[in-house]
């Protein structure tokens, strides 16, 4: 006898996998449809208004339709009850007269009288086709009097024990039952009434089909439902039309505003009519005209300012060169002068150096403002760049008593950057940290991951007050105007550094807290043109603590700014790539 071999493990494994793939495909398609529907609901005012109108009108019309259909059904049923009750009353009276001549249920002519009474009450024709069934039963005398119906049918299935008991108690009772008397299931209104006789009581039943009433009620319900559906559709179309009249100008205004924000300042809305929407369009156009005029005025002023700065910087080059030559000559012969004159020559030389640096920075700022700054990227090892910056500032750090500590990886850190600009950024950051270090160590840390490189410069000086992290990159801003500069800076170093970082597509961020010093973080993409998402180093130092309580809850707490001046208060991050600041 041959048997079917069991499925191989590979086949058994593939079957649930195929079902799982199909289920995932269906669920993914449903999720996409739901997401598109949700997006349409959020973005389209017209869809929301039409949907709400349709739902509200459907509920309202559906409620009215239900009440009307129920009322029609009740009226038809009440009419049928009234008619059948009259027929039962008159039929019971007639039957009582016919059987009143008999004193015993065993009399021979009683059964014939009952048969004739049933036929008469049924309309005289035992085969009548109106559907009404008349029955006379005698529950007290089941052996002497047989149940008679016209037309002939088995009515026992439609006469419930409850109805039979109520009639036996001498009451006229009714109920609605569904059964098969003529071959198909039909709903009947069953009425029963007692028929008093000289020997006791018999029961008269009328079974009236409710087919006509059901058809009439169904037609009425269909008419009401069709009218309600048409009304709901009409209300939806009306809501869509009215909403479109209101939403279209708003959409036109939104598109015009987007074009204006993109720099197309000559875009205007079309004004039609004199209604409120036309007033909105006219007001929008007037606002756009005023904004265009003001923007053009500001652009002209900015252009003139940049041109003035650039022209002044260039024009000062010639007299500065002359003054520099004279100052160098005087400075070279200062040993032959009186001590006071020699000191004046030294001061003149120092201020000329600072003045020359200021002119150089002003020219660089003017290039950034004019959009002429260019990036010369090349693969560069940042470790030697950091060492060059430290070597250049070692004399200043030794003079002010600020030790510089390095935390650099042993392997090269390669990134596609402009080495001249990166070195200028680090020179400004380290020089600023040394100047504000308060004779405490300055820590320089270099880190990298697959997408970015980062350098942090940490000092432990007076720090920054809340809100000052938004100002440190402003031109010529100083936290303490009375503080003497150790490096003779121009006040433009951090502003130029920020522009250099932006030119690389990177971040330059600051954190600070009173009494805890400050930390600056430079983050650059490892490959030129990539977009930054995280930084290898955290902005808030791990040793930073809340000024009002210090570390708690199992870890240090930090307060500091994020990009754009946002401030974060909470546990300092742990691990590379985590960020404690709030980006805005």
Automatic annotation (TrEMBL):
Record carries keyword Phosphoprotein: yes
Lineage: superkingdom: Bacteria
Location in or out of the cell: Cell membrane
Bilayer topology annotation: Multi-pass membrane protein
CDD domains documented for this protein: HAMP, HATPase, HisKA
NCBIfam families: MtrAB_MtrB
Catalytic activity: ATP + protein L-histidine = ADP + protein N-phospho-L-histidine
Class of this enzyme: transferase
One protein family per Pfam: HATPase_c
GO CC term (a single one): plasma membrane
Organism: Micromonospora jinlongensis
EC numbers for this chain: 2.7.13.3
Protein keywords: ATP-binding, Cell membrane, Kinase, Membrane, Nucleotide-binding, Phosphoprotein, Transferase, Transmembrane, Transmembrane helix, Two-component regulatory system
Main location: membrane
SUPFAM superfamilies tied to this protein: ATPase domain of HSP90 chaperone/DNA topoisomerase II/histidine kinase, HAMP domain-like, Homodimeric domain of signal transducing histidine kinase
Every HAMP domain range: 244-296
Protein name: Sensor histidine kinase MtrB
Domain annotation Histidine kinase: ranges: 311-528
GO MF terms held by the record: ATP binding; phosphorelay sensor kinase activity
Transmembrane segments: 49-69, 222-242
């Amino acid at each position: 006898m041959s048997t079917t071999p069991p499925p191989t493990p590979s086949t058994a494994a593939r079957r649930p996998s195929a079902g799982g793939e199909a289920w995932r495909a269906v669920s993914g398609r449903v999720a996409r449809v739901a997401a598109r529907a949700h997006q349409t609901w959020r973005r389209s005012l017209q869809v929301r208004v039409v949907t709400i109108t349709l739902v509200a009108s459907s509920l309202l019309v559906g409620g009215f339709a239900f009440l009307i259909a129920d009322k029609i059904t009740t009226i038809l049923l009440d009419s049928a009850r009234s008619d059948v009750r009259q027929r039962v009353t008159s039929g019971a009276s007639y039957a009582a007269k016919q059987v009143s001549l008999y004193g015993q249920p065993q009399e021979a002519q009683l059964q014939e009288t009952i048969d004739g009474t049933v036929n008469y009450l049924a309309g005289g024709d035992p085969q009548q086709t109106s559907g009404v069934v008349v029955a006379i039963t005698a529950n007290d005398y089941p052996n002497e009097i047989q149940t008679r119906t016209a037309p002939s049918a088995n009515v026992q299935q439609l006469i419930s024990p409850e109805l039979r008991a109520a009639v036996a108690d001498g009451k006229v009772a009714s109920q609605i039952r569904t059964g098969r008397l003529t071959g198909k299931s039909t709903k009947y209104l069953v009425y029963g009434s007692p028929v008093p006789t000289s020997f006791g009581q018999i029961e008269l039943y009328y079974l009236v089909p409710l087919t006509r009433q059901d058809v009439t009620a169904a037609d009425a319900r269909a008419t009401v439902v069709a009218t309600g559906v048409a009304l709901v559709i009409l209300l939806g179309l009306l809501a869509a039309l009215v909403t479109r009249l209101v939403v279209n100008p708003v959409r036109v205004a939104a598109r015009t505003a987007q074009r204006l924000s993109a720099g197309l300042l000559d875009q205007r809305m079309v004004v039609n009519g004199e209604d409120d929407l036309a007033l909105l369009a006219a007001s929008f156009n007037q606002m756009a005209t005023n904004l265009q005029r003001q923007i053009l005025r500001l652009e002209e002023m900015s252009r003139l300012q940049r041109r003035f700065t650039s022209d002044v910087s260039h024009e000062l080059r010639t007299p500065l060169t002359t003054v520099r030559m004279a100052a160098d000559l005087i400075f070279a012969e200062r040993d032959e002068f009186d001590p006071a004159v020699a000191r004046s020559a030294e001061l003149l030389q120092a201020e000329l150096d600072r003045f020359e640096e200021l002119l150089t920075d002003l020219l660089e700022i003017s290039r950034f403002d004019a959009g002429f700054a260019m990036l010369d990227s090349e693969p560069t090892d940042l470790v030697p760049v950091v060492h060059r910056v430290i070597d250049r500032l070692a004399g200043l750090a030794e003079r002010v008593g600020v030790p510089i500590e390095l935390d650099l990886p042993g392997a090269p850190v390669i990134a596609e950057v402009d080495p001249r600009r990166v070195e200028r950024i680090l020179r400004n950051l380290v020089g600023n940290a040394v100047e504000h270090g308060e004779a405490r160590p300055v820590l320089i840390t270099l880190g990298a991951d697959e997408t970015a490189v980062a350098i942090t410069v940490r000092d432990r000086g007076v720090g920054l007050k809340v809100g000052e992290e938004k100002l440190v990159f402003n031109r010529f801003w100083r936290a303490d105007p009375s503080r003497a500069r150790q490096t003779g800076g121009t006040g433009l170093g951090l502003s130029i550094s920020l522009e250099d970082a932006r030119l690389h597509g990177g971040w330059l961020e600051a954190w600070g807290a009173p009494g805890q010093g400050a930390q600056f973080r430079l983050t650059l993409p490892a490959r030129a043109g990539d977009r930054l998402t995280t930084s290898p180093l955290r902005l808030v130092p791990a040793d930073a603590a809340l000024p009002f309580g210090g570390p708690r809850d199992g870890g240090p707490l930090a307060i500091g700014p994020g990009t754009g001046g946002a401030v974060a208060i909470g546990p300092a991050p742990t691990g590379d790539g985590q960020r404690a600041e709030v980006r805005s």
